[in-house]
Amino acid sequence: MDTSKTPNSLINSRSPYLQQHAYNPVKWLEWNEQTIAVAKSANKPILVSIGYSACHWCHIMEKECFEDEEVATLMNDELICIKIDREERPDVDAIYMEAVQAMGIGGGWPLNVFLLPSLKPFYGGTYFPKPKWNSIISQIGIAYRNHFDELAKSADQFALHIQSSESEKYKLQYDNELIFHPAMLDSFFSKLAQSFDPKWGGLQRSLKFPLPSIWEFCLNYGVAEQNPAAIEHTLFTLERMVAGGIYDIAGGGFCRYSVDEQWFAPHFEKMLYDNAQLLTVLSKAYAISNNPNLLRAIVQTISWLNSELKCPHTNAYFSALDADSEGVEGKFYTYTYVELKTLIKEHLDVFCKVFNITEEGNWEHGVNILFRTKSYKALSQETSFNEEELQKFIDEQLKHLKSYRDQRIRPGLDDKIITSWNALLLTGMVETYKANPDL
């Protein structure tokens, strides 16, 4: 953020995300009644750009596009530009996210949607690199001036989809009578199971999100219907997730998703709502399995929430931690081999074997992500430690690493307090207590 420049209207916003864009040369406006009135009266297409403060690709697009004078000039000439924090206006985000998905485009953030002055969407997408972004804006300007009727027709179709009820969209209603019945649960699980990843857990995708609601459904369904496959795959998925990568094995807490099928390389932002829901799932899974690795993740995550997201004045919890620190993605959470060699005085070879550490780095730019792919029982057979000794050794070294990294510059904090996310956390805490009252 270059504060030497003249700020735009976002400078008066309370949102950390909008404040991040306050010195962009783009003439951003906030979403409010006054802005909507201005947008409707201007004979221009409207850009609604939605994101959140910890969003990695939001930062990338800002640097590539919104901080660029050339791009900003084009945007200001062709568009009315509105910036929205999705955590402040989840209602607006939900409407335009659904519209983009109806266009056949995968959802995500940053969400960039183009509207007519009526606020009806006609085109959208997520992250765009600078050349494509410039091309799209130019094409939209031309289409708006020369083919307005076609854009209006397209916008009407998307608006009709948005206005449809959920039961109509997903065919859950017939002649005003809901057609859901308990036997459909078997069908839901059967279809879901076809997408299970037997090697890494979760669903068979190259981008993997934790998806806690799916695994909570599988646990509840497995217990209620006595279906061991639902429980077993959920436990396997959670075991793979807490082994590192997407999970901060040194400090606790889950990142939002991994960019591969192995849960290895995350975008490192940590969101309150993800961790709150995962506490619920982990606690239910631990109550079933007594798996010590799940219990360790529960304890660590609660400790992380209390130390890094808890507001000291209200005892509520803040929203998120950024993926980046010092302008580098994951810098707070990764280690070079040289750093590890300095920190771990004995049995470095064992530590490296456990977490797949290499001298060249197991990730980009020569750094390592802590990522365990084998059980401690299997690893003990490859080292001079027995299983209990190995776990104790690893726990001691992880404490050293956490103390070391606590001296680093921390990722940015989004200090909004969102009631619904805190409610999810309360649910997670209650489930934790039910699973183990001693925690």
Report on this model:
The protein has helices at about 15-20, 35-40, 55-65, 70-80, 90-100, 130-145, 150-165, 165-170, 185-195, 210-225, 230-240, 270-290, 290-310, 335-345, 350-355, 375-380, 385-405, 420-435, and strands at about 30, 45-50, 80-85, 110-115, 120-125, 175, 175-180, 255-260, 265, 270, 320, 325, 330, 415. The protein has about 450 residues and is of the alpha+beta class. A hairpin with a 2-residue loop joins strand 12 (about 325) and strand 13 (about 330). The chain is globular, with a radius of gyration of 24 Å.
Q: Output the number of helix runs.
A: 18
| Structural class computed from helices and strand pairing | alpha+beta
β-strand percent reads 5-15%
Strand arrangement in the largest pleated sheet: 1-3-2-4-5
Q: Calculate Rg over CA atoms.
A: 24 Å
- The geometry reads as globular
For the terminal residues, how far apart are their CA atoms? 42 Å
Count of distinct strands = 14
Provide mean pLDDT, rounded.
Answer: 92
**Unreliable stretches covering 5 or more consecutive residues:** none
The main pleated sheet reads as: 5 strands, mixed
Helix content: 40-55%
Q: How would you briefly describe this protein structure?
A:
This protein has helices spanning 16-20, 33-41, 56-66, 69-78, 90-102, 130-146, 148-163, 166-169, 184-193, 212-224, 228-241, 272-289, 292-309, 337-343, 348-355, 376-380, 387-405, 419-435, and strands at 29-30, 46-51, 80-85, 111-115, 121-125, 173-174, 177-178, 257-258, 266-267, 270-271, 320-321, 324-325, 328-329, 413-414.
